[in-house]
Structure formats: structure tokens, C-alpha cells
Amino acid sequence: MSRPSVLSSSIAVFQKDLRSEWRTRTAVSALLLFAFAVLILVGYAVGPANISREDRPVVHSVLLWIVIFFSAMTGLSRVFVHEEESGTAAALRLSAPSAAIYLGKLLANLALLALVLLFVVPLFLALMSFSIACWPLFLLVLLLGSIGLAAASTFTAAIVSKASAKGAMFAVLAIPLLLPPLVAAVSGTRIAATESGIAAGLDILQLLLAYDGVVTTAAFLLFDAVFRE
Amino acid sequence: MLYPPPVFLKAENVTRSFGVRRIFGPLSFEVAPGTVFGIAGRNGAGKTTLIKMLAGLIRPTSGRVLVASSREPGAALLSPRDTPLALGWAAPDLALYGELTPAENLAFFAKVRGEDDSPKRIDAKIERVGLDPKRLASVETRFLSTGMRQRLKLAFATLSEPTVLFLDEPSSNLDEAGRAIVAKVVAEQRRGGTVLIASNDTRDLGLADEVMTL
Predict the structure, then answer these.
(1) Full residue range of the structural domain in which residue A13 is found
(2) Are B7 and B77 in contact (CB under 8 A)?
């Protein structure tokens, strides 16, 4: 009996998750509604006019990543929690290689996060009159920061999926894991808002890249033990 | 030269405990190809736990389980976790994806296993358990009756023509026609593989060649 390839199995898991999400729209609705509510609150409470010009890059960078982070916390744990709650996790364990499950779920979470970014970032920039000086750096920070968020959240979701207090456990485990990339992403966004050259943010990009590499590799190595026990 | 008789499943001194409470064991038994092995016992005796352990879904507290990695003669005996594609499992706490149609569910599991997921093969699998693939082509699984979902679980369990098929309460929620499907699935499976049935239902256990009571 031949073993399935990790890549084709992970694509099947990814497609299945997208199809399920398209039919229920549970995670997308939760993520986008939360993001929309926070954006409106931030825009109303802080707005562009209530902050001095020199403070704007710092405050806006922090607020942007707060919106992205809490939106991610709202929906990204669902990929595994839903499998456990609906009783489908055992069928998945018996059918797909662990690495393929993690990769497929990571891709699904990246797709969700991409949707959130497409919704949040333009609205945030418009609402807060947040101007970006170096777009390539800003986009790279968004990309690498999102990969870090998704990689760590997906792995944490697998850990908490069998726990009884899933929401609380997810926050407790994910927040310490996600603080380093969040701090780096905030700094990178601030630099992208103030410096016109990408060189100023190279250290941040290297840090984010290293974090993404370490977390994704560790998750791949540990996932089998986490998901099958 | 005498060869040992082939074995498709072997349990060696397996026990399972939750905390300090031992559920069962130590148990040792072997199941040969073409055999239907029944597991009986009162509620709470550990039938479902034993089936899950044999299928590699939970670990034994002590002892080990080995299953044949394929139906080929002389196939290696491996831990069930190392050869999940040789196993089929249907149980009350198994669920398939409610948002997908029956065909989409089976095609998904075929695809992640690296198998043929063509509509022709998938429809044949659905027909085999007495469901009409054309009628259910656009019906999401969550809208099926409990009995139809139980039949779909049988189709899932036998999707890859497993070496060992685990059936936990296979006739629950099934009418007489459904029970006949279970008997047919068991008869087909025993031709090349083996079946373990955990149940309290005497008609399910009547399909077994031998019955172990927990």
C-alpha cells in the first residue's frame, strides 16, 4: 500500500477546509465582523486627528497589529477545534499524514488571514490617514508577520483542540508564542511608515523570517505527537 | 518446513487504564485473515476503548498491538499508527464532514490517502452501502438521516479495502435493510481481510466466528 505524498494530501486538506468554510462562512464571518467592529472603535476613539504627527507612526503601527492579532485569535483556532467538536478528527487522523494535516491547516489559516488583511489594512490606512513611506517593506512585514501568526496559531490550535476550555487555553498558549513576531511586526511597520528605504528594516525582516522558519519547523516536528496523542 | 499461520492482527498483553482505574487487560489474542472477531461486554467494559486502541487512535497503557501492513502474504506486522491506510474504522463517535456531500467526503478521504478519487469509484462505494449517489449528489451530509450517515460511515471504513476493519456498534440506527448491508460488508471484507466487531447486539455478534467477552 503506497503512502500518499504530503503535498497532495495537504492540498486536499486545504481545499476541503476552504469548501467547508465557503458553505458555512463561520470563521470568515467571525473574523471580519470582529475586525470591522475593532476598526470602527479604533477609528472613532483614536482617529487621525487625536494623535500628534510625530506619534502617529508608533501608535498606528501598534493599533494595526492589535486589530490583526485579535482578529486572528478569533478565528484561527477553528481549524482544529471544529474537527474535534464535530467528531471528524479521528477520521482525519486515520487518513492523512500528520505533516499534510498541519500544512493543509496552515494554508487554510493563511488564506483566512490574507482575507482579513485585505479587509483590514486598506480600511485602517484610510480611516487613520496612515501613510506608508516604504511599501515593499510594509508588504514584506505584513507577509512575514502573518506567516508567523498563522504558523504559531495553527500549532497552538492543535494543542488546545482537545481541552475543555479551548478559548482560554488558546489565548494562554498563543500569546507568549506570538509576542516576538508581533513586537517585530510593529517595529517593522513603524519603520515602513517613517523610512523610505527597505534597508532600515532589514534586521526586522531577518528576525521575522527566522521566527517563521523556527516555528514552522518546530511545528512540523512536534505536530504528530500533539495531534495523535 | 512449517510456516506459522498468517496473522492480520495481534494484541500482546494490552491494558488500558484511566488514572488508577484499569479498564481492561492484560489481553492477548490474534486474528487470522478471513476471520470475524467479536468483542462483547457490558456497558463500560471498554469495548470502544479496545477498538480505538487496536485501530491506533489511542495508545495502550501497556502491551502492544500489531497489524498486517497489507493483505499480501508475508506482509510486515506494524504498529497501527505506522500503517493507518491498512485500517478501516466505523464507530458511533466517528463523524464525516457535515458541510460536504457524501461523494465529496469519500473523494476527500481517497485523495488524502493518495487513492483514486474519480466520481466512478466514489459512486460505486456509495452504492455498495445501499445509498443512491445520484439522489445524494447535492445533499450535504448533515442533512442525511442518522441511518444514512451510519451507512456512509461503513463506506468510509471500507474505502481503501483495509486489511483490518473495525466496526463499533455497526448496526446502531440501522433498519433491516441497513443490517443486511452490514452483513454484506462483513462478508466482502472477510474474503481478503479481517473484521473486528464490538457490540452488545447479538445479531452483530452473530456475524463473528469467535467472540471475546470483556
Answers:
(1) 6-227
(2) yes
Residue pairs spanning A and B at CB distance below 8 A: 75
Task: Give the integer Cα–Cα distance in Å for B196 and B41.
Answer: 14
Does residue A81 form part of some domain? yes
At A197, list the grid cell: 528605504
pLDDT tens for each residue of A119-158: 999 999 998 888 899 999 999 999 999 999 999 999 998 8
CB contact under 8 A, A8 and B111: yes
Give me chain B's average pLDDT, please: 91
Give me the number of domains chain A comprises. Answer: 1
Strand B9-18 versus strand B21-31 pairing type: antiparallel
Q: To the nearest 10°, the Cα dihedral for B135, B138, B143, B144?
A: 30
The type of residue at A222 is L
Contact by Cβ (8 Å): B64, B9? no
| pTM listed for this prediction | 0.89
**Does A96 reach chain B within 8 Å, measured CB to CB?**
yes
Distance from CA of B162 to the nearest CA of A (A): 10
Give the residue ranges of DSSP H helices in chain B. 47-54, 102-112, 119-128, 146-157, 176-192, 202-205
Contact B27, B183 (CB under 8 A): no
Q: Which backbone phi and psi does B93 adopt, to 5 degrees?
A: -90, 15
Chain A from 51 to 90: CB within 8 A of any B CB:
86-88, 90
Grid coordinates given for B156: 468510509
- In a domain, residue A1? The reply is no
Nearest CA in chain A to B110: A95
In single-letter form, the type of residue at position A187 comes to S
| Cross-chain Cβ contact B112/A88 below 8 Å | no
Chain A partners within 8 Å of B111 (Cβ): 8-9, 12
pLDDT of the residue at A130: 87
Quote the CA–CA distance of B43 and B198 in Å, as a whole number.
Answer: 11
Question: What DSSP line would sit under A122-139, residue for residue?
Answer: HHHHHHHT---S-HHHHH
> Do the domain assignments include residue A101?
yes
Asked, for residue A75, whether it belongs to a domain, the answer is yes
State whether B112 and A13 contact (CB < 8 Å): yes
**CA B166 to the chain's CA centroid:** 2
Angle value at C-alpha B160, between A99 and B210, nearest 5 degrees: 115
Instruction: Single out the residue of A200, A182, A194 nearest to residue A62, CA to CA.
Output: A182
Of the partner residues A2, A20, A90, the one whose CB lies closest to the CB of residue B100: A20
